[in-house]
Write a structure and sequence with these properties.
By secondary structure, the chain is α+β, with helices and mostly antiparallel strands. It is built from five helices and three strands, in the order H-E-H-H-H-E-E-H.
Length: 130
């Protein structure tokens, strides 16, 4: 039984699964959205939210180091800390959105789009208006 075990195995050995998810997070942060299978998307969402939360720290050097533990490209890590994370400074989690998409041609696997939620521009406008 899989009691108290977080995450799915995704039919991959541990090292391959970790690398696959790190690459998916890197692509998500680079492009803003990724199309993948639903099972991978759910695991990706957990990891991506964790990366953005780490990037929101006050200490930029520590934040970049912690983001680089997951993100595979240095320039993307800087982008996450300096551009993406400040958009979500007033948001407590839920930085990604998962939309079910089509079925993949070939094996008919259900696919989903994982995208970064746009920062609350309406929230910022309301806060500045008050």
């Amino acid at each position: 039984m899989r009691h108290r075990i977080k995450g799915k195995k995704l039919g991959r050995p541990t090292e391959h699964r970790i690398l696959m998810l790190r690459n998916l997070v890197t692509d998500l942060m680079e492009h803003g959205k990724v199309v993948t299978t639903v099972a991978r998307a759910k695991e990706l969402r957990r990891l991506a939210d964790r990366v953005i939360t780490k990037a929101k720290q006050e200490d930029k050097v520590k934040a970049i180091r912690e983001v680089l533990e997951i993100v595979t490209k240095k320039d993307i890590a800087y982008k996450v800390v300096n551009e993406i994370a400040p958009k979500y400074k007033n948001r407590n989690g839920g930085y990604t959105r998962l939309l079910h998409y089509h079925f993949r041609k070939g094996d008919a696997a259900p696919t989903a789009i994982v995208m970064l939620v746009e920062s609350g521009q309406k929230e910022e406008e309301e806060a500045s208006a008050e």
